[in-house]
Amino acid sequence: FSVAAYIIFSIFSFVFGKISKFANKCSITVFANNKNIRLEAIIDTGNSIEDIFSSSQIIIADQAQVNKLFSLEDKNSSRYRILPCNTVSGNSILEGFRCDSAVVISENTKTVLQKPILAISKEPLRDGYEAIINPQIFN
Predict the structure, then answer these.
(1) Cα dist. 50→4, 54, 112, 115, 125 in Å?
(2) What is the pLDDT of residue 19?
(3) What is the pLDDT of residues 41-68, one digit of tens each?
(4) Does residue 26 or residue 55 have the better pLDDT?
(5) What's the predicted TM-score (pTM) here?
(6) Measuring CA to CA, which residue among 113, 117, 99 is closest to residue 47?
(7) CB-based contact 94:77 (threshold 8 Å)
(8) What does the pLDDT read at residue 47?
(9) SS (H, E, C) the chain
(10) What sign results for the dihedral spanned by CA atoms 112, 129, 96, 78?
């Protein structure tokens, strides 16, 4: 039984070890308004928000980080976006801004996003993360 349990455990570790890359950290540099910010992010399937109009990738970030690129005046610009989202507590909206580009670096992968949306998180992010991205951006 011990050998069988070890083999089953090894198989699960191998399979879920491949899947767990989606919980890794990455670095994102976001460019907008001739400025840029660097964010430490978590790759998480919990960020499944989509821009239904342009299919742009969504980066969810803390308010303080978004404020480094955008000001209150930008809410009157063409960069401003309202994003509907579903959460475990119900439906909501997130405010966001269209950026010029973003570079996501994770392990040995570098992905360039064109015109992503930087959405403002309703709650402060924890564990040293400043942003959340969906793993689908690597596809």
Answers:
(1) 43, 9, 18, 13, 19
(2) 45
(3) 998 876 667 777 778 899 999 999 999 9
(4) 26
(5) 0.79
(6) 117
(7) no
(8) 66
(9) CHHHHHHHHHHHHHHHHHHHHHHCEEEEEEEECCEEEEEEEEECCCCCCCCCCCCCCEEEECHHHHCCCCCHHHHHCCCEEEEEEEECCEEEEEEEEECCEEEEEECCEEEEEECCEEEECCCCCCCCCCEEECHHHHC
(10) negative
How many other CB atoms are found less than 10 A from the CB of residue 80? Answer: 13
CB 42, CB 59: distance < 8 Å: no
- Token representation of residue 5: 């349990």
Phi and psi at residue 67, to the nearest 5°: -65, -20
Record the tokens describing residue 81, joined without a space. 């976006």
Structure tokens at 52: 């239904």
